[in-house]
Amino acid sequence: DGGITQSPKYLFRKEGQNVTLSCEQNLNHDAMYWYRQDPGQGLRLIYYSQIVNDFQKGDIAEGYSVSREKKESFPLTVTSAQKNPTAFYLCASTQQGQGVAKNIQYFGAGTRLSVL
Amino acid sequence: AQKITQTQPGMFVQEKEAVTLDCTYDTSDQSYGLFWYKQPSSGEMIFLIYQGSYDEQNATEGRYSLNFQKARKSANLVISASQLGDSAMYFCAMRAGGYNKLIFGAGTRLAVHP
């Protein structure tokens, strides 16, 4: 089945540690996105990528890094510079182009990150 | 500034009744899209319905319909014949500007009572 797979489902980070969240899609989508969700709030955009080897900062990129070496994969690293990393992280992807009017973003099941 | 506002933190509805979840938006773009997503307790975001700014008809998808009032900048979600499985968080989102970026509202928690 086509979809977006995020792993792990739960992740714990120690002080000063970098951790990497995985996001893989087999939908052949061009664009991929990372969002952060804090309790009781909506989603905020961290990073996005429209094509391989290219990505842009979203609204809250500080303390995060990404790579896009393959079309299917868009991993997110939460660095030690992110002082408040506890949150729910969601990855999304979409096909895009002029003929794709809706450009619906489809989401993975998320990764819940906590600080030890 | 581009913004989505959902003014109802929580809503209750009786099973089989209809419910309206409010969403207002602010954008200076002429071309934009409006989305509704459902987030059950498991956390995944499930796409429900889409309305384009140039669409003349209100969007419908099964029991979901979008009441789009462009002049008022509102895009309310109507769920007809509520079911217990509809209990979840509901988010309104807008695509505006470039790169298909979405701006989300704070969400409305819907509880369906038997």
Low-confidence spans of chain A: none
**Coarse morphology of chain A:** globular
Strand % of chain B is over 45%
Order of helices and strands of chain A: EEEEEEEEEEE
The helix-strand sequence of chain B is EEEEEEEEEEEE
Question: Largest interface, by Cβ-Cβ below 8 angstroms: which chains and how many residues each?
Answer: A-B, 28 and 23 residues
Distance between the termini of chain B: 41 Å
Radius of gyration of chain B: 14 Å
Question: Given the C-alpha coordinates, what overall shape of chain B results?
Answer: globular
- Which spans of chain B have pLDDT < 50 for at least 5 consecutive residues? none
Tally the helices of chain A: 0
**Number of helical stretches of at least 4 residues of chain B:** 0
Q: What does this protein structure show overall?
A:
The complex is a heterodimer of chains A (116) and B (114). With 116 residues, chain A is mainly beta. In chain A, the strands form two sheets. In chain A, strands 2, 4, 5, 6, 9, 10 and 11 form a seven-stranded mixed β-sheet that branches. In chain A, strands 1-3-8-7 form a four-stranded antiparallel β-sheet, with no helix packed on it. Chain A starts with a strand and ends with a strand. In chain A, β4 (31-37) and β5 (43-51) form a beta hairpin. Helices cover 0% and strands 48% of the residues of chain A. Chain B is mostly beta strands and 114 residues long. Helix content of chain B is 0%, strand content 52%. Chain B has strands spanning 3-5, 10-14, 19-21, 24-26, 33-39, 46-52, 60-61, 64-69, 74-79, 88-95, 102-104, 108-113. Chain B is globular and about 40 Å long. Chain B starts with a strand and ends with a strand. The relative contact order of chain B is 0.33. The mean pLDDT of chain B is 94. Chain A binds chain B through residues 31, 33, 40-45, 48, 50, 56, 58, 88, 90, 92, 94, 96, 101-110, 112, and chain B through 4, 33, 35, 37, 42-47, 50, 52, 91, 93, 95, 99-102, 104-107.
